[in-house]
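quick one
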Amino acid sequence: MKIINNQKGYTTSIILLLLLIPLLLLLTITIDEYSHEVDNTVENLQTKKMKSTTQDFENEIATITKQTLHDTTLEVITRKQALTNSKKYIKDKIQSKIDTIEQKQRKNNINIECTVNEIKPADDPFKIEIHYTLHVTTNNSNSKIQKEENRHIEITDTKYPVYDPLPTLKTRATFTDSKVEYTDKLANYITINNSNAYLNSTQHVTIKKCPINDYSQHGNSNITIKNCLNNHYYHNSHDGLCLLCRLENRTTCEHYGFETFILPTEKFDKAPASIDHVLLNDQQGQYEGNNITIDNNTIIYLDNGHKIKYGL
Ligand SMILES: [Zn+2]
Ligand SMILES: [Zn+2]
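structure w/ zinc ion:
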């Protein structure tokens, strides 16, 4: 107060005030920046949390899809009842499982909305394509994630075995312990000569992809072809049905599918060809093949086309 009383003091206080203004301004800016930085850190943390939650969620979608394919094929094969619309059936099942995990995330202040738009055969018959839309928001910040995703999920993960339902659907044979015991059912289903070649045959129906990339190498040695037959591998095929069409008990399929060998039990010169889509075709589509002896205990019957394909 004393300063203001004289002229000199008055000037000093003005100078002090003028000096104080930039200092105050600087302080305000610093505080503002500091709080901004805190805000940014919170925002960053939220974004990071959201990103990692979304990543986990998407991994979960892949697992759910595999689990659903395992459950569905097992269900169809056990009940011996085909699905009328396998794409829709699987899509709805996956969606309802996804809805349950969405609920869990809500407790973490992260809202995930995921819609499964489509399930369809992939170009690779050992994969299924899933198309979904994701919308992720959080209660504590403005960040959000919005995306559409097309993913190819493998059906050959040994943790979630997927079973081929066609043998039981076509012949009504019984499935036990990952294989189908045909008894007389396949022989009775076949309408061409020497159907008895398949009396009491057994087919393992877990879908496993043959590791040989160049199929013509199967004939390189008896060991190679025997290894394929003993492991009941499946192969890419234009004529074979895809998994989704197999679940509907179809005879033809417009997608790229797979095929496997069904091992005969009796020896003839000629008998119905040992390819699943030939034997399990509608009865007009069956055709015969020539005996190919692999060793004392193993023979198969193949037509020319399949003989060339597998280099036998
Ligand atoms: Zn093979
Ligand atoms: Zn198909």
